[in-house]
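Q: Can I see a sequence and its folded structure?
A: Here is a first one.
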Amino acid sequence: MLETEQLTKKFKDTIAVDDVSLVLRQGESVGLLGPNGAGKSTAIAMISTLMKPSSGDVKLNGKSVLKKPGEMRRVLGVVPQKIALYEELSAYENLKFFGRLYGLSGNELEQRIDYVLELVGLADRKKELVKNYSGGMQRRVNLAAAMMHEPEVLIMDEPTVGIDPQSRNHLLETIRKLNQDEGMTVLYTSHYMEEVEKLCDRVYIMDHGKVIAEGTKEELKAILSDQETVLIDFDQSYPELFTKLSEIEGVQQATAEEHSLKLIIPKGTRLLAALFHEAERYGAQVVNVNVQTPTLEDVFLRLTGRKLRD
């Protein structure tokens, strides 16, 4: 339904997006992951026709939209990272304004406002000024505004940043309903891997402007199918030991967090014994050991060398 072909964006000597090709099939929910500076937001700006690419193409149903951006804008709803609302207006007034921009009027406009407010759970507070809403409520109105014209494709750029758990859960459930129950096509970026795990069918991973991996969640996890994740909890932090353990031959990846160390190691090796022996030499007390199948977060860390929130 929507695709990019070798999409590239240069800013003077910096290549923000480098030869990126994405495909969104109708009714899919696709995750776009990458650490800060990976090029996700620039790619979204070009897909949304808000920024012209240096080269490459954006296609809707097989036809380029670069010369006719209105065709994309009619079917596209965008929920940006930053709140895009007028704080001095109520939720109802904001939605009425955006609805009119899309050409809605009269009963059609009123019915659509009622529907999207019900969808995001704010029908009973529609007359309150947006500036008096919590951050989570504002983000829900942000989604409602993107839904006013009944878009076929919804792009969401980190829509749950900095909101309370209740609003976050409500947003995620709303997105799931739109995708799974109503068949809406979704492109979703987030700094929370669990959201992508819950919502997305396929995932693209970007780093330094390039797509470095793509596939279903199961296909991406298969990258580390011959490895396992070992989480070791200690009684306290041992920085020197953690560095030593990460340098043991065979350790593929090591991540230290407070009193814990997460390691990715090959399956069927005797590395665990070597790890425990080294910990004993340092006089470190091991509190708990958990061996598990690598997660999507582990795959991301292995491919980019950074956590998703970095």
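Q: Show me another, different protein.
A: A second, unrelated one:
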Amino acid sequence: MRDLYQRLGLPNDASDKEIQRAIEACQHNALKADAEVVLGDPERREAYDALHVTLRDIGLLRARLGLTHGPFWQDNTANDFSLPPDNTGARHDLLIARVERAVGLHNGWRKWRAPWLLAVLLTGATLLGAAAGAALYHYWLL
């Protein structure tokens, strides 16, 4: 699908007068005919604008993921909503860092989860229970 706004050099919120001027100034007959049919009719323009927003969002998502069209799609109408890849902060590197941190935390916990830990916890609970029992016994007798 063509991005009619981009190809006519218009912003997405262009007025009807701006659209008509751009259509009249257009030198490409097929683009001019498509723009007249789609952007000239208010109902069709509303449907086109809804689809335009969706396709623009998909293009942004593809750019954030670093996806581009193959060389055979470049300079084609299928490439109208594509953006250059966003390599400023690769999401893959962020994901790898988070996974490495989680694995490090897990491995740190595993070394403390030794069999002796259960014995220490049971002994500690027994001593705490005995101390609480002795305190209660002493409280009730006095």
